[in-house]
Amino acid sequence: MLENPFLTKGYESAEYFCDRDDETAALISNIKNGRDTTLVSPRKFGKTGLILHTFEAIKKKRLKFDTLYVDIYATLSLGDFTKTLAEAIMQAFPERTSIGKAFLTFLKALRPTLTYDSMNGSPQLQFNYGSVAEKEYTLKSLFDFLNTRGRGVVLALDEFQQITEYPEKNVEALLRTYVQSMRNIRFIFCGSKKRLMAEMFTSAGRPFFSSTSMLTLGKIDGSKYANFIVRHFKEAGRSIDDESLAWILHWTRRHTFYTQTLCNEVFSRGTNVTIPTVKAAAQYILDRESNYFLQYRELLTRQQWLLLVAVAKEGKVSKLASAKFLQQYGIGSITNARRAAQSLVEKELLLTTETKDKTEYQVYDVFLSHWLKREF
Description:
Elements: H1 21-32, E1 37-40, H2 47-60, E2 65-71, H3 78-92, H4 98-108, E3 113-116, E4 123-126, H5 132-147, E5 152-158, H6 171-180, E6 185-191, H7 194-202, E7 213-216, H8 222-235, E8 239-240, H9 242-251, H10 256-267, E9 272-273, H11 275-299, H12 302-314, H13 323-328, H14 334-346, E10 350-354, E11 359-363, H15 366-375
Parallel strand pairs: 1-6, 1-7, 2-5, 5-6, 8-9
Antiparallel strand pairs: 3-4, 10-11
Helix pairs in contact: 1-2, 3-5, 10-11, 11-15, 12-14, 12-15
């Protein structure tokens, strides 16, 4: 049993994972029935946790699939993608396993330089390419290795929209060609940039058009999250009242990372939790992040900063062009507001939610939103 059951990073086990039963079932159904999946959610919404939770469920159900998670957020090129994939395979399948031994034998033919991180012992590879064709050949070889395993493979590629930033041309088309021919690999393409992921998988002119089953991650049901929180308090011999539960879920917007972080802090403070305890924990978190948040003021233009503060104070904004809104917060013209909003969305400081009738803006970081509202 963990000392603090409210995890703020990583995945431990199903015991410390809240709900997502429907999403887990949908992913497993896609895997069993030969369908690839596109999974989209804002950052820190529990996307990675859902993937690892699904991987654990696959093992518990004894489905005949190996699982592999690869985060490509830090990659800048096709070469980086290939390197990251190869290192993830080595990490997932150690040399002592049969697949690990087979992979090391396979790697020798690609002639990489292999070293190990002195701090954590993780493998580090360096491929030397003479041409773009060699990069493509190496990547195709890695996919082929996974595809020809005796068992199926579930390969989750996180922050998949990053491939659109690579300097090489036609990366989407190249990967689509490879993916199409991998019959024994079930791909899960994960992304946090909703518009970009939608363009990649739903636009008729893009290579991945209509090639996957789409799955969007929403907020966890409030009653289920409340039950999850209460259960862990009870199991630790502690209590939390209904008013405190409601306040936590409202203040954090049920955004997984922020809910977990506040619950983690509250849990560390005592055995019988009431509203004063919860509010004190929330203010402590904002104070702790204050120096970090102050840096945004130096990094943004005046209009961007004013708009960010305005959205924080309003909570949600759907009418950026409203004369009253622009005048109240000194943002200036409609053009200034729209340009600032676009830039803040690209910087992932504003989060958009689209409906048939409107687009709503919120500050992406829940803690930043509350801090801006408190300070300005």
